Amino acid sequence: SEHSGLINGRDDSQPTSSPDRVDILTALFSSSAESRRNFSYLLSITSIAAIGGFLFGYDTGVIGGAALSFDDDFDLSDFEVSVVVSIALIGATIGALLTGRISDQYGRKITIFGADVMFIIGASTLWAAKSVVWLYVGRFFVGIGIGAASMVVPVYLAEIAPEDFRGAIVACNIFFVTFGQLVSYLFCLAFPDDWRITIGVIALIPAVIQAVAIWFFPESPRWLVKMGHAVEAREVILKIRGAAPEDMEEEHEAVDREIDNIKMAIQEEPDAPTAQLIKE
Question: How far apart (Å, rounded) are the C-alpha atoms in residues 162 and 43?
Fold first, then answer.
């Protein structure tokens, strides 16, 4: 149809002059101070949100090296070590299952904060562990954080990113996951005999940073619209877009179209609970 190419107010049936990477470079090196400032703002949001991906990678990778030195403090059987390693997967499953409903009801930001709380509790428990039970509990909480972060961070990034940058922004989370795994291996090499540092102290730092910094950034525009806060969502989108003053009228029209598209997409979402959808 004639409207099939319209996505978020842009006619995709017309050829584009450059790929997304050129759009990003244009924003970064633009002569417009407003454009550069708002691209830096978007980059800051992405970096802080993607810490969740970093923690995902770090906490799944670090246990392989840390488990080698558990015997320095505890006389663990092979079965107990395997439980310490694998119990995080149980926590991750629970975290992933609960996160969707929580983020829809309370917002993406508070859900990311909740994941950080799980990471902090888990890392603190592991750092202070006095017995294998403490290791079980700490890894379980870390697993909940992993599951929650793996669900909510990509959603937040996709919903906060402008359309032209969306693919690159969401891909940053994948990069942070693998980067976190790399960093975990490096710390295991640097502290081969001190597992409390690798799975406790080091894991705490990024979680605390994100838990504090996330409150300085906006909520997802899509979630705001869904909760009936379209005016606030409009302000968020305008701030992230960062149009030059001479383009503000055109930009306002584009934002209004994007808000309308979000509303239509939300209306088309199924209202049935997840369990019923799976059953059907």
Answer: 12
Q: Which long-range contacts (CB under 8 A, 24 or more apart) does 233-238 make?
A: 233/259, 233/262, 234/259, 236/160
Distance CA 63, CA 22 (A): 40
Which bin fits 107, alpha (ψ -120 to 50), beta or left (φ > 0)? left
What is each CA distance from 199 to 192, 195, 206, 207, 208, in whole angstroms? Answer: 12, 6, 12, 12, 14
Work out the angle at residue 238's Cα, subtended by the Cα atoms of residues 232 and 242, and round it to the nearest 5 degrees: 150
Report how far residue 21's alpha carbon sits from residue 167's, in angstroms, rounded to the nearest whole number.
Answer: 10
Sign of CA dihedral 189, 193, 197, 200: positive
d(CA 133, CA 258): 51
- The reported pTM is 0.82
Residues 199-215 have a mean pLDDT of: 96
Which residue matches tokens 């090296």?
65
- Measure the CA dihedral 31/159/211/110, to 10°: 140
Question: CA-to-CA distance for 89 and 42, rounded, in angstroms?
Answer: 32
Could you report the per-residue pLDDT of 101-146, keeping only the tens digit for each? 999 999 999 999 999 999 999 999 999 999 999 999 999 999 999 9
